[in-house]
Amino acid sequence: MVSFSRRSKFLLATSATLFLASCGADDVASPGAGSLPITIVQPSPTPTPTGPVAPTALTNAQIALATTQSGVTITADEQVALLNAGQNNNLQGFGSTLNGVYPISGTSLATASNPQTVLGNSSFIQNTSYVGALSGPNDAAFSGWTCSSTAASFLNSASCTAVPAVGTGGSSATCPTGLTDDGIVQTFRICRLPQVVTSDLTLPKIAGVVYRFRGQTEVGDINSATGVTLTIAPGVVLAADASEASNDLLLVNRGSKLNAVGTADAPIIFTAQQNLASNGVSDATQGLWGGVVLLGRAPTAVCAAGTGPNDANGSSATCQQAIEGVTGRFYGGTSQADSSGTLQYVQIRYTGIAISEGNELQGLTLGGTGSGTTIDHVQSHNSSDDGVEIFGGTTNLRNFVVTGADDDGFDVDNGWRGFMQFIIAAQKPSGSTADSFATEIDSNGAEDLLPRTYGRYANFTFVQTTSAPAAIRLRGGADFAFVNGIVKSAAGAACVNIIAGAGDGATRTTIRAADSALQDVGPPTFNSVYFQCQGR
Fold first, then answer.
1. Per residue in 66-94, pLDDT tens?
2. DSSP per-residue codes, 28-70
3. Cα 473 from chain centre
């Protein structure tokens, strides 16, 4: 309150009276004696902006899952110590950082490292200034040539459940020479591949035509010395036959090639025949056919009985192994630069068949394929097993996305030695197996076989949307490095699970010191990885 002097009150009252009189008011009441109360209302202070309140820090046991295998354990504390040994890692990520697989802003979630320097590779690995497979919400690297689902949506990409763009005119179209005309399905002309492609064959893009394969369709004979090439033009749609009960798959034998080269605007789509009808598949559809299998002549560490063993250089001329999911088809050899062809701008939809426990067909299976095999801009969608599994060999992968896999996203084993960059694994939102991981790295329990499994991941985004044990499982004595990554696991799930199945103390196979005699470069390394564990 403020009290004025009587003189001040008189002047104030007089001024008010004159003002009102000028407005035509003749009878104006004047204030009485005493003080005039005036209330001054102070404005509320502007609150200081604050960011989201950080939740309680995760414990080591929440970040890393400890698993005992063959009596050997790597504790959660030891695993977190490996993460902390790297540079620019954030183990306590939380909040709204991703919109699906896209960062919500163009600001990197962690300080990026130069992956060329960290991984010692400048011929395949590209330098980047951000973590994750995508630089921000408008990154178009996976735009258009992919398909979208509840597992992950991509900019300008059609729904995976939509009928592929086959085109019209099937009723008047004719099948290329060497293919069987199976008539009209829906409105499309169906041209069926031979059971075994024994000479070079090209599948051109013809409006209204779908190419069908039935049962185990093979490119090249297993006894062929020269091999053949199946070439697929941009925009072609191939569909596994749904009218009979055999396991449909496309298998390329050693020495032969698959050249499936699409474009960003006209990807090549491998799918099931059900996908040719509106509402023929749903977001949960999987396991309709056995996927694509490429076999090559690059080395493998696991040799079939009576062959091998192999050495660090992969120089055994006898070591070979049977591929999973089929009978009597082998991979392996001594050619590290072997080529099984090229897959670029390709979708592989609704695959995965379990023949028996541990004997499955995936979305894409690579068996002993060499560094001359080109795999980039490929999507494996809704496999009932792994998105891609790599058995040995030396093939590198770039711009590879796995969406909706029921088991692992990227599964590597049997002495694979290679690099991957710009890779995404977005697990299915519900119902996946309890033992599924964004990536599983293994050597089938034989942890000192040669060549030793050796992998390098750069610019990866792993979104584990189900309560699987962890996002990354590294076991089997493999050597791995991770740089510029984003790992997001669901509530109840850790981010990493590092396992050794042999050794004791400092000699445990996955985390022991480098040993050139065992082709071992030392414990796994993590640099510039943003970890957002436990659904935070």
1. 999 999 999 999 999 999 999 999 999 99
2. -PPP-SS----PPPPPPPPPPP--PPPPPPPPHHHHB---EET
3. 14
Vertex 41 angle, CA 37 and 46, to 5°: 170
Nearest to 135 by CA among 377, 422, 329, 331: 422
* DSSP for residue 515: B
Q: Contact 109/529 with Cβ under 8 angstroms?
A: no
Q: Please state, in angstroms and as integers, the Cα–Cα distance from residue 358 to each residue in 137, 294, 354, 380, 473, following that order.
A: 38, 19, 8, 20, 17
pLDDT tens-digit series, residues 208-229? 999 999 999 999 988 766 799 9
Cβ proximity of 210 and 219 under 8 Å? no
Q: Which two tokens stand for residue 62?
A: 């929440």
Q: 77 φ, ψ to 5°? A: -60, -40
Structure tokens at 4: 């004025």
Contact by Cβ (8 Å): 297, 335: yes
Residue 491 DSSP symbol: T
The beta strand positions in 447-501, using DSSP E, are 454-463, 470-474, 479-488, 494-498
Helix (H) or strand (E) holding 116: helix 115-119
β-bridge partners, 529: 485
Name the residue among 262, 269, 259, 266 with its Cα closest to residue 239.
269
Q: Which two tokens stand for residue 319?
A: 């070591």
Question: Is 467 buried (19+), middle (13-18) or exposed (0-12) by CB count in 10 A?
Answer: middle
pTM assigned to the model: 0.90
Q: How much of the chain is helix, strand and coil, in % rounded to 5?
A: 10, 30, 60
- Would you call 398 exposed, middle or buried from its count of C-beta atoms within 10 A (0-12, 13-18, 19+)? buried
CA–CA separation, 14 vs 9, rounded Å? 8
Buried b (16+ CB within 10 A) or exposed e, 506-535: eebbbbbeeeeeebbbebbbbbbbbbbbbe
Tell me, what DSSP letter sits at residue 445? T
CB 427 within 8 A of CB 408: no
pLDDT digits (tens, 9 = 90+) for 441-452: 987 678 999 999
H or E element: which one contains 18? Answer: helix 6-22
In single-letter form, the type of residue at position 504 comes to D
3-state secondary structure of 294: strand
Contact 119, 125 (CB under 8 A): yes
